[in-house]
């Protein structure tokens, strides 16, 4: 858990054109997440305290943005797009294949080293459909074989 | 006036209105979910699709959302166009994809907007055969039951809760087809208007958790127009009963008062009438008996006492009950008062006389238009709907200035707020008065707070002064009225009075009778005391004196519908009908008389207070005329307003104006400097205190002091302390709260009553080791 002082210092270092403390909510969440990997309930309450918003208002933001995680994540995160183009090109089957391969449902961790697989809203990678973000890097078009190979590599690499 | 054409019918509209608003006003029901008159348009549900044909003939007819399309002269709108019907049908089909179709076991069934719209617009069968999306529900406390699977994502709940009622512990989570309306974690909703989620939700996501415990289908409920008995605002309600029991209370629209909403005390306080301690059988000397024997016994004792009879009416007793009791006492030449505390009587009479004098007390809808307000005391728990109206004024840009002694929720929206110890309030108001009227004595030495408030009020188009009678002295009340006068004729004045009929009680009271009666009782000059709907023995300030005087009273006759301490102590207890079980009239804070009807009858025989007094007068051989004629004697030309109508301003002679010099307040003995302040909460009303759902939400009964006072007295949060005076002593724990004034200890009514002190009285505080 990050010290509240660090967070507040982060807040002080935010660009001056942030209109108010409310605007600091997302950067504060990302800053805390970069240290802890995800935000637990205590983190949400801490951010509420720092930004002066209520914990419900922070939760509204935290659960809206797909790059903010409310549950423990693996060392690697694969976000498979399931919006229209990718869906038409087999994203749903990819998501099922991932669940099958990892042996857990989406968003859950099979083991400490396992990657986290999540569905995602449109990534703007329609030309590579079905596409994914692997630790923030674009990947695609994916097939079941390519995905399984990718997951295997992520699971085993140091 | 400008008109649009809807399916060939010419409909007038006001500039700025959209098609849906114009249509609804003309009673053309365009199907909709997310639009609400109080919340406006959002365009989230897509149900209000209509086809429009622009005036410009080279543009083709197309489908638009009626709630987002401004009405324009000559616009041709079609509700029945095939294209529009098809859109509405698809919208319903999509919304119903995940809906659980659990109408037979859903509490909303029968009054569900989604059910109605589906029948009106949608397909009759499901085509989707896949899995439905499911959600876990949250425990939202004792008032609201949560069933998220039924949600159709219209956002009405968050728009009401966050935007309208300004709550921040409930919101919309997640995204896409997983949008979830709830709290960060399980727990009771904190906003005092949360109960409106039940009505605002077009389907059964939020249902009434109290109604659910003893449920009836809406078509089985007996309803009739009633008036809320829980504060002086007089919100219109629609109680629903079945099989001789009251099941729920809903708001009933009054264009100038509560409109679409009601506070949680109004919606859930009704459980008092079903409480298991409620007296339902007459009791003489502790033995249950029938009405005939009880009334005969009462008449005997009254006859024996003759002019040594006293009568206490009540601020929560209707006009009829109060006027009959007063007439009975007049005939007997005994003493009548409608109040049980001399200071509260003076304060209420002063407040009513000042509102009569200024004649500029706004109703709730007008209150929302105010642009600056000075609020003394806590409105949230003394008149919640006035608070809600001021929240709307704040949303419209009004500047709120608050002076308060203990915690007041509205301070979070105040542009200027200051905590003032109860006995320093008058001084503060006087300084403000001098600053505003630029009288001698106005100088640069006044605090910045005073300067800011004075400037805000002076610059306002229509400033409002709002005070709470229960936590004000008569001097504070006069000072606030003088401020309003100094601000020229546009200034509005509101005093929150101490009961649903406090205004009416004041009109029927002669100044000083309460102290006369109390002193007579203390001297043993009251042989028989009749108490109707009042609880003098639990009164914070004078309860201790009444408890002592009780020893000198031969016969205590109590008429009430709740088991108060006074009712428990009665020699003759005569249960009366609760408000939904009788008809009568309340006069609200504006002086608006509003009638309420009998909604239902319980299996037990329960007459109204007026009926019982009339019976007794017959037994005494000097029958009183009926309450309506009695009221006409007091208020010439008075016609009881019919229930369900907007009510009428009661035409009464103005109460005599008393000036501050004439009002005696008792001198406060010096002690270690603590002043008591009333810490109010949602269930803090004699009736609502019997509602289990509300009492579950009671805050801890602690002694609240501010951090500065805590440091000075070396008290830590949670420290055990003893509050004491010559009457009694109470042990409690300290809670540090920055919203309490310096040198003030904010405590709940029950502790004040045990100590026999009121708001502003002195109290000793010492730490227990």
TrEMBL record, chain A:
Kindly list the positions annotated as binding [2Fe-2S] cluster.
81, 86, 122, 126
The record's annotation in Gene3D superfamilies points to:
Glutaredoxin (3.40.30.10), NADH-quinone oxidoreductase subunit E (1.10.10.1590)
The UniProt note on the cofactor reads as follows: Binds 1 [2Fe-2S] cluster.
Alphabetically list the UniProt keywords: 2Fe-2S, Iron, Iron-sulfur, Metal-binding
Its required cofactor(s), as named, are: [2Fe-2S] cluster
> Keyword Iron on this protein?
yes
* Cited InterPro entries: NuoE-like, NuoE_dom, NuoE_N, Thioredoxin-like_sf
GO molecular function terms noted in the UniProt entry: 2 iron, 2 sulfur cluster binding; metal ion binding; NADH dehydrogenase activity
Q: Which domain of life is it from?
A: Bacteria
NCBIfam families with a match to the protein in the record: PRK07539.1-2 (NF005722)
The record's comment on protein family reads: Belongs to the complex I 24 kDa subunit family.
What is the name attached to this protein's record? NADH-quinone oxidoreductase subunit E
Automatic annotation (TrEMBL), chain B:
Cofactor remark: Binds 1 [2Fe-2S] cluster per subunit.
Tell me which family the UniProt entry assigns to this protein. Answer: Belongs to the complex I 75 kDa subunit family.
Entry-linked InterPro entries: 2Fe-2S_ferredoxin-like_sf, 2Fe-2S_ferredoxin-type, Asp_de-COase-like_dom_sf, MoPterin_dinucl-bd_dom, Mopterin_OxRdtase, Mopterin_OxRdtase_4Fe-4S_dom, NADH_UbQ_OxRdtase_75kDa_su_CS, NADH_UbQ_OxRdtase_ferredoxin
Its name, as the record gives it, is: NADH-quinone oxidoreductase
Q: Which domain of life is it from?
A: Bacteria
What is the first-listed, main subcellular location in coarse terms? membrane
Annotated source species = Nitrosomonas marina
Ranges for domain 4Fe-4S Mo/W bis-MGD-type come to: 221-277
* Segments forming domain 2Fe-2S ferredoxin-type: 1-83
Q: What is this protein's function?
A: NDH-1 shuttles electrons from NADH, via FMN and iron-sulfur (Fe-S) centers, to quinones in the respiratory chain. Couples the redox reaction to proton translocation (for every two electrons transferred, four hydrogen ions are translocated across the cytoplasmic membrane), and thus conserves the redox energy in a proton gradient.
Q: What would you give as a GO molecular function for this chain, any one?
A: NADH dehydrogenase activity
Q: What is its EC number?
A: 7.1.1.-
Which NCBIfam families does the annotation name? Answer: NuoG
Coiled coil ranges: none
Subcellular localization, as worded in the UniProt entry: Membrane
């Amino acid at each position: 858990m990050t010290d509240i002082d660090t967070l507040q210092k982060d807040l002080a270092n935010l660009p001056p054109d942030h209109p108010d403390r409310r605007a600091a909510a997302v950067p504060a969440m990302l800053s805390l997440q970069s240290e802890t990997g995800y935000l637990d309930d205590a983190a949400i309450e801490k951010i509420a305290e720092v930004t002066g918003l209520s914990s419900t208002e922070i939760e509204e933001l935290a659960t809206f943005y797909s790059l903010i995680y409310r549950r423990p994540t693996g060392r690697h995160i694969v976000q498979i797009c399931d919006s229209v183009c990718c869906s038409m090109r087999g994203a749903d089957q990819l998501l099922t294949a991932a669940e099958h391969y990892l042996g857990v449902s989406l968003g859950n961790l099979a083991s400490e080293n396992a990657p986290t697989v999540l569905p995602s809203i449109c990534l703007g990678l329609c030309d590579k459909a079905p596409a994914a973000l692997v630790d923030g890097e674009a990947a695609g078009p994916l097939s079941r074989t390519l995905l399984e190979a990718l997951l295997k590599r992520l699971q085993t690499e140091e | 006036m400008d008109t649009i054409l809807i399916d060939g019918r010419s409909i007038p509209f006001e500039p700025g209105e959209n098609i849906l608003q114009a249509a609804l006003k003309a009673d053309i029901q365009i199907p909709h979910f997310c639009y609400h008159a109080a919340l406006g348009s959002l365009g989230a549900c897509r149900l209000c699709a209509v086809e429009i044909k622009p005036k410009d003939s080279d543009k083709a007819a197309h489908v638009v959302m009626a709630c987002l399309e401004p009405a324009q002269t000559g616009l041709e709108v079609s509700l029945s166009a095939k294209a529009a019907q098809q859109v509405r049908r698809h919208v319903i089909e999509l919304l119903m994809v995940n809906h659980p179709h659990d109408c037979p076991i859903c509490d909303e069934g029968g009054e569900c907007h989604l059910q109605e719209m589906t029948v009106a617009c949608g397909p009759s069968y499901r085509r989707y055969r896949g899995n439905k999306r499911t959600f876990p529900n949250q425990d939202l406390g004792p008032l609201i039951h949560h069933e998220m699977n039924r949600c159709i994502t219209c956002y009405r709940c968050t728009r009401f809760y966050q935007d309208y009622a300004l709550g921040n512990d409930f919101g919309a989570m997640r995204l896409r087809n997983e949008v979830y309306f709830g709290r960060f974690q399980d727990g009771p909703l904190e906003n005092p208007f949360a109960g409106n989620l039940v009505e605002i939700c077009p389907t059964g996501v939020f249902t009434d958790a109290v109604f659910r415990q003893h449920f009836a289908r809406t078509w089985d409920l007996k309803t009739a127009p009633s008036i809320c008995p829980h504060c002086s605002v007089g919100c219109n309600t629609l109680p629903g009963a079945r099989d001789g029991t009251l099941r729920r209370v809903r708001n009933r629209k009054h264009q100038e008062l509560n409109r679409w909403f009601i506070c949680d005390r109004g919606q859930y306080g009704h459980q008092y009438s079903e409480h298991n301690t409620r007296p339902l059988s007459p009791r003489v000397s502790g033995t249950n008996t029938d009405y005939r024997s009880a009334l005969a016994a009462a008449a005997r004792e009254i006859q024996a006492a003759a002019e040594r009879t006293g009568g206490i009416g009540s601020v929560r007793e209707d006009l009829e009950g109060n006027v009959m009791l007063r007439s009975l006492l007049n005939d007997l030449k005994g003493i009548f008062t409608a109040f049980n505390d001399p200071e509260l009587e003076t304060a209420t009479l002063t407040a009513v006389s000042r509102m009569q004098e200024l004649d500029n007390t706004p109703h709730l809808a007008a209150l929302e238009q105010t642009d600056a307000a000075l609020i003394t005391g806590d409105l949230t728990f003394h008149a919640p709907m006035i608070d809600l109206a001021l929240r709307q004024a704040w949303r419209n840009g009004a500047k709120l200035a608050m002076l308060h002694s203990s915690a007041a929720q509205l301070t979070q929206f105040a542009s200027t707020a200051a905590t003032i110890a109860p006995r320093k309030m008058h001084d503060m108001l006087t300084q403000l008065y001098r600053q505003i009227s630029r009288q001698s004595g106005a100088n640069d030495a006044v605090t910045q707070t005073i300067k800011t408030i004075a400037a805000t009020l002076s610059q306002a188009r229509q400033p409002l002064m709002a005070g709470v009678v229960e936590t004000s002295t008569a001097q504070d009340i006069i000072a606030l009225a003088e401020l309003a006068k100094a601000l020229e004729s546009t200034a509005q004045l509101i005093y929150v009075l101490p009961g649903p009929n406090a205004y009416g009680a004041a009109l029927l009271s002669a100044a000083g009778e309460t102290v006369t009666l109390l002193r007579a009782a203390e001297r043993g000059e009251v042989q028989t005391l009749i108490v109707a709907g009042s609880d003098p023995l639990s009164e914070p300030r004078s309860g201790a004196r009444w408890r002592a005087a009780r020893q000198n009273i031969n016969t205590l006759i109590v008429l009430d519908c709740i088991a108060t301490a006074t009712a428990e102590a009665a020699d003759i207890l005569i249960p009366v009908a609760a408000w939904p079980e009788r008809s009568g009239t309340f006069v609200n804070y504006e002086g608006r008389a509003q009638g309420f009807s009998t909604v239902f009858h319980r299996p037990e025989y329960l007459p109204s207070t007026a009926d019982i007094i009339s019976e007794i007068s017959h037994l005494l051989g000097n029958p009183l005329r009926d309450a309506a004629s009695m009221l006409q004697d007091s208020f010439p030309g008075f016609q009881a307003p019919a229930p369900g109508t907007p009510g009428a301003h009661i035409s009464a002679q103005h109460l005599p104006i008393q000036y501050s010099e004439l009002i005696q307040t008792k001198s406060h003995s010096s002690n270690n400097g603590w002043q008591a302040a009333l810490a109010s909460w949602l269930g803090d009303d004699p009736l609502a205190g019997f509602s289990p759902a509300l009492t579950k939400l009671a805050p801890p009964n602690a002694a609240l002091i501010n951090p500065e006072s805590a440091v000075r007295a070396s008290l830590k949060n949670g420290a055990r302390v003893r509050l004491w005076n010559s009457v009694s002593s109470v042990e409690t724990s300290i809670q540090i709260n920055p919203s309490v004034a310096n040198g003030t200890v904010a405590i709940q009514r029950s502790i004040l009553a045990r100590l026999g002190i009121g708001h502003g009285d002195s109290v000793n505080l010492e730490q227990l080791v």
